[in-house]
Amino acid sequence: MVSQKETSRADEVTITIPVEPGDAEAGRAAAVSAAAVGRALQTALQRKASAAPRLAPREVWLYDPGYTSTACCRSAITFIDGENGILEYRGFPIEALATTCGFYTVAYMLLEGTFPADAKVRAQFAKSIQPGLDLDPVVANVVESFPQEAHPMTVFMAATAALSASRPAWNPALVRGDGGSLRLVYRTRAERQRIAQECISSLTSIAAAVFRHMRGCPVRFPKSTQHLREHPLDAFAPDGFARAFLHAADPEGTLWPEQRHASAVFAETLDVIFVLHADHELNCSTAAMRHLTSAGSDVLTCLAAAIGALYGPLHGGANEAVLNMLEEIGSPEAVEAFVASVKRQERKLMGFGHRVYRSYDPRAKILRTLAQQVLREASTEGRTANGPTTANGASDPLLIIAQTLEKRALEDPYFTERKLYPNVDFYSGVLYRAMGFPSVFFTVLFAIARTVGWLAHWMEMLERDATDAERKIVRPRQIYIGKRRQRIPLEAVEKRPDRRSRL
């Protein structure tokens, strides 16, 4: 128990509330029940207002814009220590996972809570989530209905929602007697596993189809690529999942021909990026996934909503915004003037700072090293995918601008005192560009990886559906600041005698 005493003003009250102790060793924060705080405050205020009971509040709510200090669930998936730059999936440091495990293995571990037991399990799982080459006809029609220049996230989100129409058995709204518990639709853990795996495969296939549509290529695979349907899968390859996606996105091999050494480097790098992006605790899009799940929405509708949240330039769209910023700066010589304009608050420094990190984002450290390797590989083969190399063929000009900007910002107390360090978005855009992806497609790549995290949280919620009494439909409260008991002005009153007689 802890007592919080307020004695500086006569109108303040003292309350006693239970606190669940934290554990620094386990990285667990202390927790206080918001409902308990509200009830204690309400009781104290009612007692204090005994002389004027009409002034006492009927309810007390905690005001927390952006939920910066509010935990809405208990989760065992991802741990973040923003002060010290620590990120762990299921207790495993992100640095170790990125250097020792491919995306197939990390995806399995996030969804199942453990690593594959043996080679057979890993191979079966890899096969179940790899991108397929054939789209559902409904989804293919939706992708083709969009103009080629449409933003791919819009197409991706719409196609994911459309896939829901082809999976009516997955929709609690269409199942008689479900009542919102989701248990009749997603009955067993095995069923939830199968659905999650199919969602990963389907959404990655949709992303590949969107990429082909952007380039004016057929959404449906032509007969000339029939041989790719039998493409062998190596579940042990360090770049297995990424390589499968690149095959699906570029079946003719015009962008990433297998014989080029750079293509292997790109695939391995993309697989690492997928590992880094797989989950990140209760971010905006994952919160949206949980939010809709709490309402009983079907899994594909939940995923479409999460994609919509990720689309925002302050969330998943930030890496595209970083690249746009670097292109706008134009040259290393222009960095100083840009930094000055940021300090005058005339422009925004994209890719720096993070909602939870108050030190260097651990994912950004890994990407910084990868960016140098990938751009060196691309320039060795005579190009960087979407832009020229420098005079000596050593690097992409945007990487030089990025490095100059990072060095300048990290030397300036204005940024360091505000804990503004590079985050994962700062270098991922440069990497994607070097691989040949247009900037508008960057967030779709982010979504491919994050689909695993979204589904891990979805499975965790459903696992507790029958036992967790705390799981409720998400319904935040508001602090009402408008007027009350107003009268409709005479000039706004409409003559509706029939309605008045009925009501």
From TrEMBL:
The active site is at H354, D425. The chain crosses the membrane at residues 430-449. GO terms for molecular function: acyltransferase activity, acyl groups converted into alkyl on transfer. Pathway: Carbohydrate metabolism. Keywords: Membrane, Transferase, Transmembrane, Transmembrane helix, Tricarboxylic acid cycle. InterPro entries: Citrate_synth-like_lrg_a-sub, Citrate_synth-like_sm_a-sub, Citrate_synthase, Citrate_synthase_AS, Citrate_synthase_bac-typ, Citrate_synthase_sf. It comes from the Eukaryota. Coiled coil: none annotated. Signal peptide: none annotated. Pfam families: Citrate_synt (PF00285). GO terms for biological process: tricarboxylic acid cycle. Belongs to the citrate synthase family. This is Citrate synthase.
